[in-house]
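Protocol step 6 of 9: fold each sequence in the batch and record its structure tokens directly after the sequence line. For illustration, a two-sequence batch is reproduced in full.

Sequence one:
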Amino acid sequence: MSRHEVSGRSIAILAVVGIGALLYVAAPRCIIRARMYAPETAALKAIQTLNTAQAQYQEQFGRFARLLAELGPPASGSENASAANLISAGFAAGERQGYKFTLTSTPTGYTITAAPSAFCGSLTFYLDQSLVVRESVGPRPATAKSKVIAPT
């Protein structure tokens, strides 16, 4: 083996080790970022689920549900306007994956708010029958006047 072949192999090995070290350092940041956004993404999906449940409830009972419990399963017996069985019992209790959900009846429809159980720079969300999702950064609740992020 010539001296240049050994030197070339050494450089290749150093390059592989360097790339591996870079990935080792960068990967935890990506994982942390993904973990940070996961509850917010889940909250948005949950809002969409509640919106769909409200549409189904209105189709079935001629009005929007006034409480989350009305969208949940009945304690016993068959589904009815007090318990339509459109969402799980746990979700009807108002909590899901680190967020607290509130459904409020309004004269024109409903509002849904989602706020993290514990704040650390997280987002709060707001949706009403207009189907426009809004957000607010931090503990201040999102409202009808908050920044629009997307229609559902």
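Sequence two, same batch, same settings:
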Amino acid sequence: MDHQAIAQLLGNYGEFVGAIAVFVTLFYLAVQVRQNTGQLKLDSFERSQLRHIELISYVLQDSETFNVFKRGLASYSSLQSDQQALFHTHLMRCLQLHGYNLQLMQAGALTSEEVALQRRNFARVFKCEGAEEWWRTLEWEPDSSEAIKALRDDILADCEAFALYQSLPFLQGASSKSF
């Protein structure tokens, strides 16, 4: 065998080994992308859950905040202006978190089932008389009104949800009939 034939043979082997290396590299990268995607979904779910827990913790942080929330569920107008601001802030944070969850779902980071679990909790709040009264008192700027209304409508579309104070014993007495 002459030098040119050996070089040709080595070149062919090199191309074969290179093709296998490219295939192995692509397979490795595909596995890594899948693992990273799974981790991103898990991180997004965890962040969403933590934000939801923070919302609940906000209400339960002290007895005054809890009582404002409890009374607000029954009657928004019964609250003083500073208490209305607290109640308003909480409901707006619920809407904001639901919007965040919908964006994560559209991006494929949350499943519709995961979003539905939190939507149910938000629906239980928004179906209370005080939250409905709160909504009626608001005036929105035209450019933000449609987006906020769409979030609220999406939350209230959960037909199986019932008012929060109907399911939690420590909120019993929060209905407007008891005030």
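Proceed to step 7 once all outputs are recorded. Observation for sequence two: The mean pLDDT is 85.
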